[in-house]
Design brief:
279 residues; Rossmann fold; Helicase, Ruva Protein, domain 3; alpha/beta; 2 domains
Length: 279
């Protein structure tokens, strides 16, 4: 991993300026690097996808574990510097200059499920998480660095102000685990906020049983789109269930949900109960 001084020298040498719009903040804290590498748990025989390796803060350590590492970097200049730093030292390291949201995971040969590690750019954090969940049949777990406020949403429990449709979506498909707080001073250039290191452990089956996932998530999204309203008022709208309140009241009663509840007070199981009783 390059120090702050070494990063500055590399930037100057290559005429490179980190792009704020791409969320390019490079890790310079060796203690945090070791925590990430340890959490990733890469070993010989593993296949690891690294998202946004930057200038290789953890890339070389992952490759040094003996795992087959596939690192996808969008920034062409950062990719060129990383390629120079790697210098073909690791035959088990493959670098790709591509947008992770467009990258074909079929380019990664694997027999079992792969592991994922990455410092996720703040401006596409949610789309990347959605991608990982979409490809969860190929992934066992993901170690991700995200802005602290995003982490709070992913981890939030019912009753919390941070509990949202994103919380429900992620917790339906995975078990998010908080690992460490990462101070903004651990990066250069220094971001405006602290980050959190999380592990997403993808589930073999959803955390709650629903008859129709489309209906379930329509209810979840519809509820949180009007989170200040009661669950009765948020779900009765035309664009959600389009149901007379008397009928909706009977549905909520069957589901065991008080009509005056707020969306943020409902657990995944209660949302599932509403969806299942609609069938």
């Amino acid at each position: 991993m390059l120090t702050k001084t070494q990063l500055k020298e590399a930037f100057l040498q290559h005429g490179f300026r980190p792009l704020k719009r791409l969320g390019e903040n490079y890790l310079i804290d060796s203690n945090i690097k070791e925590k990430i590498v340890e959490a990733a748990g890469a070993k010989t025989g593993d296949v690891v996808l690294e998202i946004g390796p930057g200038l290789g803060a953890i890339t070389m350590d992952l490759a040094g574990s003996g795992a087959s590492v596939y690192a996808v970097e969008k920034d062409k200049k950062a990719f060129a510097i990383l390629s120079e730093l790697a210098n073909d030292r690791y035959p088990n390291l493959k670098l790709f200059c591509d947008d992770i949201l467009k990258f074909d995971l079929g380019n990664i040969p694997h027999s079992g499920k792969m592991k994922v590690a990455g410092n996720l750019p703040y401006y596409i954090t949610t789309p990347i998480i959605e991608l990982l969940i979409e490809k969860r049949n190929m992934i066992s777990s993901a170690i991700i660095l995200v802005q602290r406020e995003v982490a709070e949403r992913l981890l939030a429990a019912p009753g919390s102000k941070d509990y949202s449709s994103l919380s429900c979506f992620v917790q339906y498909h995975s078990r998010p685990v908080y690992l460490h707080t990462v101070k903004r001073t651990s990066f250069y250039p220094e971001p405006e906020v602290d980050s959190s290191l999380l592990r997403l452990e993808f589930l073999d089956k959803p955390s709650v049983e629903v008859a129709d996932e489309g209906v379930f998530f329509k209810i979840v999204r519809g509820a949180f789109n009007q989170r200040r309203k009661t669950i009765m008022n948020s779900l009765s709208r035309e664009e959600v269930l389009d149901m007379p309140k008397e009928e909706l009241s009977r549905l909520l009663a069957r589901a065991g949900v008080a009509p005056q509840s707020r969306p943020e007070d409902l657990s995944l199981q209660q949302f599932a109960s509403i969806a299942n009783n609609l069938q």
